[in-house]
Design a protein that fits this description.
The protein is an alpha+beta fold. The protein has helices at 39-49, 55-63, 95-105, 109-118, 165-174, and strands spanning 3-6, 13-17, 20-23, 70-73, 83-86, 128-133, 136-140, 149-154, 157-162.
Length: 180
């Protein structure tokens, strides 16, 4: 349910969805970033996935809510064909995929917690894993004051990919290495 308003003969357009706006005519606006979420929409997102987000993730969602351009996953040397999927998931557009990923990551939470414990990370019992990008998940839990990022392929193949969302984002998206 996108509402698009375009000016004929002008590249400027505005997309409104979920209580947030993105105006392409504003200087510095990033075409690859989806609309930003308002506090009200962030609350709706929390309710939809049954989690309370940490302040750093809320700040992230206020600035960037997913990406428009699909990311390519070449699967290394597996001989599988490349796949395209959302780079960063967005609400509400990717809500069904987000819910599927949440369910997938929590199918064997006891094993997942044991796997992460081996690397020195304690996954709280009441933690909710919220997917942000591919197989990367934020740990959302009331007792945490930041959002650790986990890489979870399955319950026995999981690592802490970043102790803080900002550090993960800086390394994976903003570093020179990620621009190659």
């Amino acid at each position: 349910m996108y509402q698009t308003h375009e000016t004929v003969g002008n590249a400027n357009s505005e997309i409104t969805h979920g209580g947030s706006d993105r105006d392409f005519s504003r200087p510095g606006n990033d075409y690859a970033s989806r609309w930003r979420l308002t506090d009200e929409t962030i609350t709706q997102y929390e309710v939809a996935v049954g989690a309370s987000f940490q302040p750093d993730f809320k700040t992230f969602l206020r600035c960037m809510n997913g990406t428009d351009i699909p990311a390519i996953d070449v699967r290394g040397s597996s001989a599988e064909p490349p796949r395209f999927a959302p780079g960063f998931y967005s609400y509400p557009g990717d809500l069904e995929l987000i819910k599927e990923r949440i369910e997938s990551a929590s199918t064997d939470k006891v094993q997942l917690a044991a796997t992460l414990e081996e690397s020195g990370f304690h996954l709280p019992d009441d933690a909710k894993l919220i997917p942000i990008c591919g197989h990367r998940y934020l740990v959302c839990c009331p007792i945490l004051d930041s959002s650790p990022v986990l890489s979870v392929w399955d319950a026995s193949d999981a690592i802490v990919d970043g102790r803080f969302l900002l550090k993960y984002f800086e390394r994976e998206v903003l570093s020179e290495r990620s621009m190659l």
